[in-house]
Design brief:
alpha+beta; five-stranded antiparallel sheet; three-stranded antiparallel sheet; about 30% strand; globular
Length: about 150
């Protein structure tokens, strides 16, 4: 009886732990920390696109929209067929809320790997965490893909 109770208790503890190790929606770096909603949003934005060679700097004129996926993943839309993914160098607490203002400290007309930004609370003006960009990975639709 005691042996059965121990086995049941271990199962109750182990199953959620094992389930938390499963990936969320995509096998990309950083994906294991994504909520199901974040994974779905990331998958939708990158659907049908394939990753290219990472670049160190992204010229500001190339992008039209910044999409916050999670506290450590940003996407930069550069048209319907091209999206740049940036896995930050560490988490940026509060980034995913999409309510704080991103203040980017950059030198020149490009945002580069290693550049800093910080979040500022929209209502109080209080400065939040300082965060660091990673490299920019382009995701493009393959040539000849009309969809």
């Amino acid at each position: 009886m005691l042996k059965t109770m121990r086995a049941a208790a271990l199962t109750i503890v182990a199953v959620p732990l094992l389930a938390s190790c499963a990936g969320s929606g995509t096998a990309e770096p950083g994906a294991s920390a994504l909520s199901p909603k974040q994974a779905e949003r990331l998958d939708k934005q990158l659907a049908g696109k394939v990753p290219g060679e990472p670049i160190r700097c992204l010229p500001n004129y190339r992008t039209s929209e910044t999409i916050r996926i999670s506290d450590d993943i940003l996407l930069y839309r550069a048209g319907g067929n091209l999206v740049y993914r940036n896995n930050l160098k560490g988490a940026c607490p509060g980034l995913a809320r999409d309510s704080d203002i991103m203040v980017i400290r950059q030198f020149g007309s490009s945002t580069c790997e290693g550049d800093f930004f910080h979040l500022v609370d929209r209502t109080s003006g209080i400065r939040g965490p300082t965060c660091v960009f990673g490299e920019f990975v382009p995701y493009r639709k393959p040539a000849g893909d009309a969809g």
